[in-house]
Design goal:
It is built from 7 helices and 14 strands. It has 296 residues and is an alpha+beta fold. It has 2 domains: 40 residues; 214 residues, Protocatechuate 3,4-Dioxygenase, subunit A, CATH 2.60.130.10. The strands form 4 sheets. Strands 1, 4, 10, 13 and 14 form a 5-stranded mixed beta sheet that branches. The model has no long low-confidence stretch (mean pLDDT 93). The structure holds fe (ii) ion.
Length: 296
């Protein structure tokens, strides 16, 4: 009688882990090999630690499938899961020790769109978004305090319902409260839009279901998103948060940093900083960004 060449015995759960890790030894790219083997080791430990049942495993697979259905241009539901479990902020925090004075990065969030509409500096980017008028301005500086010319700023934020353009029909309504601006030689930026407000994690996806069943905290403090890119500088992805928000200490996605809290100052009708005559109350934000060179 010939014995089968297959010798695997999985009664002892350690054996399957060893066999799987051995198989992934063949991964040609060393970094991918490291990532995969470590991930497998940790996932196997997790399954053992919690004694994951086949039903729980299937529920997780179904959740991933359902989560994929909530992804499309301008919305990545998986990013909300990563954000809500602190993984996004952990990668950002350990990526680069920023020098003192440099603007801190924070997570990019699920609603970033490439190729945002371009606007002239100082113009209104709201494109029909509803809310209180807001004028944001400041400078983009380098580490030496010099203006960064030709910096490209992507800005995106919610309206006064707490919604982003991508949560509506982007095809028919087009983008709003979303822009790309370019600084001149003085490094200054400015734009009009509407005041962002606190908003909940999207109520229609899978991440919010997880949050409701766990932390119960599914709100984000009001903020503007920025991505700033300039030659010779490390790209900066960050938010500026509204100091008035009651959710600064319980951001659903752990993105708040004290240095990123700004003052959205309310003004009665009158002249705005850019000389515009306002017939209704408006808000201003004055915030400077400090970029740093890329990692050596
Ligand atoms: Fe946001």
């Amino acid at each position: 009688m010939t014995s089968s060449p297959v010798q695997h015995v999985y009664d002892d759960s350690d054996l399957i882990t060893q066999e799987v890790l051995k198989r992934y030894e063949d991964t040609p790219d060393p970094r991918l090999r490291e990532l995969m083997q470590s991930f497998i080791r940790h996932m196997h430990s997790f399954v053992r630690e919690v004694k994951l049942t086949p039903d729980e495993w299937l529920a997780a697979m179904n959740l991933l499938q359902e989560t994929g259905k909530w992804c499309g241009p301008g919305r990545n539901e998986f990013i909300i899961f990563s954000d809500a479990m602190g993984i996004s902020m952990l990668t950002i925090t350990q990526d680069y020790q920023r020098p003192a004075g440099a603007t801190e990065p924070t997570l990019i969030g699920p609603f970033m769109l490439e190729n945002a509409p371009q606007f002239e500096m100082g113009t209104d980017i709201s494109a029909g978004a509803q809310g209180s008028p807001m004028f944001a301005h400041g400078r983009v500086l380098d580490q030496a305090g010099q203006p960064v010319a030709h910096a490209v700023l992507d800005v995106w934020h919610s309206d006064d319902r707490g919604l982003y353009d991508v949560q509506e029909d982007l095809e028919t309504k087009g983008p709003w409260a979303r822009a790309q601006l370019r600084t001149g030689a003085d490094g200054r930026y400015s734009f009009w839009s509407v005041l962002p407000v606190d908003y909940p994690v999207p109520h229609d996806g899978t991440a919010v279901t997880m949050l409701r069943a766990t932390t119960g905290r599914n709100w984000r403090p009001a903020h503007l998103h920025f991505r700033i890119q300039a030659e010779g500088q490390k790209p900066l992805v960050t938010h500026i948060f509204d100091r008035q928000s009651k959710y600064l200490d319980e951001d659903a996605v752990f993105g708040v940093r004290p240095s990123l809290i700004g003052d959205f100052v309310r003004h009665e009708a009158g002249q705005a900083p850019d000389g515009r005559a306002m017939t209704q109350p408006f808000y201003t934000l004055d915030y400077d960004f400090v970029m740093v060179p890329p990692k050596a």
